[in-house]
Design brief:
By secondary structure, the chain is α+β, with helices and mostly antiparallel strands. 48% of the residues lie in helices and 16% in strands. The protein has 32 helices and 26 strands. The strands form 4 sheets. Strands 10, 11, 14, 15, 16, 17, 18, 19 and 20 form a 9-stranded mixed sheet that branches. The chain has an 8-stranded mixed sheet with strand order 8-26-25-24-9-21-23-22, with helices on both faces. Strands 1, 2, 3, 4, 5, 6 and 7 form a 7-stranded antiparallel sheet that branches. The longest helix is centred in the C-terminal third of the chain and has 42 residues, at 699-740. The two termini are 63 Å apart.
């Protein structure tokens, strides 16, 4: 167990603090040793909280309540890190060796120093791109982090407010409820079954019950009357006074230690690093082989060495690190624009292979604006008009249900917040309770008046086992328990009925009527709550006493309408081979009604499993259930059930995305392959545990994120196909010339670098920004075991690269052959050789341009996605061709690259050869489509 010697801050003790935790010495005793009433005095506050003036003064006096930001690396370190990539190291070493070769050779060749400078130029260009992306991504991450504000509830001047957690100051009176993250180190002064999870600090996951009573001695972390930043409230409610903020908290001390820990690489980064090692090794090996093969020709060692370096450079994909950064950064930004905030890079990879989504209902599939539409009491249903949280509308025949609604709103912790000029009517707290507050207002009840007449004295918070919430109130000369919860659970605790102002024993006929009414309301897609009360003798009854022998008052049916965009998103996930499982705490009929509306259920008989049935299943039975391909709804389930289902799916090899908003969802969110928290309605604990946050809480954002996640991985593969097929096109002619006995190279190392600069890097970056293919959600999920270099990827590289290499060899040797001169008579200054070299370089450039168009899609025709749909790619290709033209015609560049001017016929031949890879790949795609669907292959 982790311990600390720090102690709560106590104003007036030196630097606002500091009392020794062990001895208790100091100007004042630690706040944990003070009675609750004395805590207010010691911390300069009151039961009404700080005044607005004191809060402002505190903000000026104390640092913001946030962790110290991790010190950013200096710009020069960020830039220097770009040169530590394996490809960059290889090229820098190659450049240095080439410079050395220039000084060693006699006579010194200008081309050698040009090659060294060109290699260094490629490294510098990629470093600049990588640095720009990293710097931009860092700024983007900071901006995205601000999109999910962390807020807390406090009392100031006696008013309950929601303020940013960073604005808390010592003395603030914080209101705590189940699901909240504790925003600072606080001394509890009021506790109603309050329990917190101190695992982030102590490593012990068992909830700790809190008390407002003083605690003597021991470590601050063992004080049950203190709660600490970074922990979470798992049950109950209470109030606590802040005594430590920011870096002065227990969490702040640990945070400073953890902040220095290095980031872990993701599986994708490991794959890329492994691939880089293999490619670098292959480049060195082939370069050495070419050196050995040409050694018997009699050329100088330096010349052969420079030639081998050219071969090696041809194989190194210099633009890979920059393209990887661009693809991931663009993916994260696109997801953010679609309301999906990616917190972990791993989530981007996992999204592309998601096979199962376990989704909540309320707020994710629906709009999370609960509206009561029916109130049932005494075998009569009362309609309610109006929608949303605005208290406009009315309840039909209010008198028989007035007591039901009074008890219901007294058993609520939520608050209805009126418009403030920026936001409309909204609920602060649970949306279901918000709907009860609204219907009570429609019935003419004044919540303030009712609370004043029956002040709350204690509470038994809702938990997922009891499925009930109870509050105890002073009611005239006696006390009254107000209870609300799931109808079946609450009805089992009732002994009487109280309808239309009359009471009596609860008969079996009454029970049957209540259950029938519950089913009738639930079948309409309504969420149903039951309400009851009990008269008590004292203010602090045992929970069993307060929740037994109840008087049943009636039912409340509320509707949370489905989000309009969810139906299309569900259909897209179905087409993508993703199974959707609804996991809800609602009644099975309510869950099924919503599931049918959004398209999760289409068949006549879905499999509906309740939490009670899950409890009765062993692991083998659960595995058998999940293995069935049926439509599955899990209703009346708890977060523990959700965790068990996620684990069972993962045992079957599924990649699981799970949504959650409550504190109890955190284990499932962490355990899932992709934990998805709600950004608007979710608790701080859930958001912290998740790897993705939905800023709009909508299921449609999950489907969009899956689509974009698939496209990120696809774009990386597109680049790999593009660059390695181009490398084959560069290497093939060199190998052909070597084994054919031609004394010179068809493409020099300087030309290869020019090609890489002009036709590799920029098109590769444009491919990284390629939008998802139209049919990306019509394909099954990608297996997580599938490698970047799958057999399909390697096959396509060889297919396109082979065609390109054949075309380059054909145009080069055709031109050489047309001169009718023996191979051994050619020299570097021969006009025919210079023209042939220019044609070879031009053929590579044109082929690369058309290959870049071909790799934009895997199966769809490029004509279907549109030639003009990626203007950046066309511009990059145009730049490469323009650079090629300059190399052909500008005298200075002719001297550098040993090229010659081409005529119109030459350019026409190059354009024709360049289209061959595109045409061949279009035929390949047509064949794949026809094989997948013979009836449609010819029309797509």
């Amino acid at each position: 167990m982790m311990r600390t010697g720090a102690d709560p801050l106590v104003p007036g003790g030196g630097t606002d603090a500091a009392v020794d935790a062990t001895s208790g010495s100091g100007p004042r005793p630690p706040v944990r040793e003070l009675a609750a009433g004395e805590v207010f005095t010691a911390l300069g506050t009151s039961r009404s909280g700080l005044s607005a003036d004191r809060a402002r003064a505190g903000l000026e006096r104390y640092a913001a309540n946030e962790m110290p930001r991790t010190k950013r690396r200096p710009v020069w370190r960020q830039l220097g890190a770009q040169f530590t990539d394996l490809f960059a190291v290889v090229l820098v070493v190659a450049s240095g060796i080439t410079f050395l070769a220039y000084w060693l050779e006699e006579p010194r060749e200008l081309g050698t120093v040009q090659l060294a400078a060109a290699i260094l130029g490629v490294v510098l260009l990629n470093a600049a791109i990588g640095f720009a992306q990293e710097y931009s991504a860092e700024r983007t991450a900071q901006a995205l982090e601000a999109m999910v504000p962390h807020a807390c509830r406090v009392l100031r001047d006696g008013r309950r407010l929601e303020v940013p957690a960073r604005d808390l100051v010592p003395g603030d009176l914080v209101v705590l409820e189940a699901g909240d993250a504790v925003p600072a180190d606080c001394r509890v002064v009021e506790a109603h079954e309050l329990a917190v999870n101190n695992a982030p600090l102590t490593g012990e996951s068992n909830p700790v019950s809190c008390t407002a009573d003083p605690v003597a001695g021991g470590s601050p972390l063992e004080a049950r009357n203190c709660v600490f930043m970074g922990t979470d409230v798992v049950a109950g409610s209470g109030r606590a006074v802040v005594y430590g903020t920011g870096a002065t908290t227990e969490f702040g001390r640990i945070y400073r230690l953890a902040a220095a820990a290095p980031r872990q690489k993701t599986p994708l980064q490991h794959q890329v690093a492994s691939m880089a090692r293999r490619v670098a090794g292959a480049a060195l090996a082939i370069g050495a082989l070419m050196f050995a093969v040409r050694l018997p020709t009699g050329e100088s060692v330096v010349t052969l060495f420079v030639f081998a370096l050219g071969v090696m450079v041809a194989l190194v994909p210099e633009g890979l690190p920059a393209t990887l950064s661009v693809s991931l950064a663009i993916g994260v930004r696109r997801m953010a624009r679609r309301h999906a905030l990616i917190k972990q890079l791993l989530a981007v990879e996992a999204l592309g292979s998601t096979t199962v989504v376990c989704t909540d209902k309320t707020g994710t599939l629906t709009q999370a604006e609960m509206t009561v539409t029916r109130v049932w009491a005494g075998d009569a249903t009362h309609a309610v008009t109006g929608v949303g949280y605005a208290p406009g509308g009315e309840v039909a025949d209010t008198a028989p249900v007035r007591e039901l609604l009074r008890v219901a709103v007294l058993c609520c912790n939520a608050r209805l917040v009126p418009p403030d000029g920026v936001q409309h009517w909204r609920v602060l707290g649970d949306t279901t309770e918000g709907a009860l507050l609204v219907v009570a207002a429609k019935a003419g009840l004044d919540l303030g008046v009712e609370e004043a007449a029956a002040p709350r004295v204690t509470e038994f918070p809702f938990d997922s086992d009891r499925k009930l919430m109870t509050t105890v109130h002073k009611n005239g000369a006696g006390y009254q328990a107000c209870v609300k919860g799931a109808p079946a659970e609450l009805l089992a605790r009732c002994a009487e009925v109280g309808w239309e102002g009359q009471g009596g024993p609860l008969t079996e006929q009454d029970r049957a009527a209540v259950l029938a009414a519950t089913d009738a309301l639930a079948s309409q897609g309504l969420r149903v709550l039951a309400v009851a009360r009990r008269e008590l003798d004292g203010p602090h009854p045992a929970q069993d006493e307060a929740e037994s022998g109840l008087t049943f008052l009636g039912l409340v049916g509320m509707l949370d309408p489905p989000r309009p965009e969810v139906t299309d998103a569900v259909a897209a996930c179905r087409r993508a081979g993703i199974r959707i499982v609804m996991v809800t705490g609602d009644h099975p009929l309510t869950g099924e009604a919503v599931a049918r509306r959004v398209g999760i259920v289409r068949g006549p008989e879905p499999v509906v499993v309740t939490g009670a049935r899950l409890d009765a299943m062993d692991e083998e039975a659960l595995d058998a259930l999940l293995a069935e391909p049926s439509e599955l709804l899990l209703c009346r389930v708890s977060p523990e059930h959700k965790m068990r289902v996620v684990t069972a799916f993962q045992r079957r090899g599924e990649v699981v995305a799970v949504t959650g908003d409550g504190a109890n969802d955190a284990p499932a969110l962490k355990h899932a392959d992709i934990g998805v928290a709600m950004g608007t309605s979710g608790t701080d604990v859930a958001r912290e545990a998740a790897s993705m946050v939905l800023l709009d809480d909508s299921f449609a954002s999950i489907a969009t994120a899956v689509r974009l996640g698939r496209s990120v991985y696809q774009n990386i593969r597109k680049f790999l196909v593009y660059v390695f097929s181009s490398n084959i096109g560069e290497l093939g002619p060199i190998l052909a010339a070597t084994f054919a006995g031609f004394p010179l190279v068809p493409v020099s190392a300087v030309q290869i670098l020019a090609i890489d600069l002009g036709s590799d890097v920029l098109p590769a970056l444009a491919l990284g920004a390629e939008r998802p293919e139209p049919d990306v959600m019509d394909r099954p999920p990608r297996s997580r075991r599938e490698r970047l270099f799958s057999s399909a990827v390697v096959g396509r590289i060889l297919f396109l690269g082979g065609i390109q290499a054949l075309g380059v060899c054909a145009v080069f040797f055709w031109h050489i052959h047309s001169a009718g001169v023996p191979f051994e008579d050619f020299t570097e200054d021969d006009p025919v050789y210079r023209e042939a070299v220019t044609l070879a370089q031009g053929a590579i450039v044109f082929s690369q341009f058309f290959i870049s168009l071909a790799v934009r899609t895997d199966r769809q025709s490029i004509l279907k996605v549109g030639l003009l749909s990626n203007l950046a790619l066309l511009a990059a290709g145009g730049f490469g061709i323009a650079l090629m033209a300059a190399i052909s015609y500008v005298p200075l560049l002719q001297a550098v690259f040993n090229t010659a001017a081409l005529d119109a016929v030459d350019w026409a031949v190059l354009a024709g050869l360049g289209t061959l890879p595109l045409i061949a790949d279009e035929v390949r795609k047509w064949w794949l489509r026809r094989r997948a669907d013979p009836s449609k292959g010819a029309h797509q």
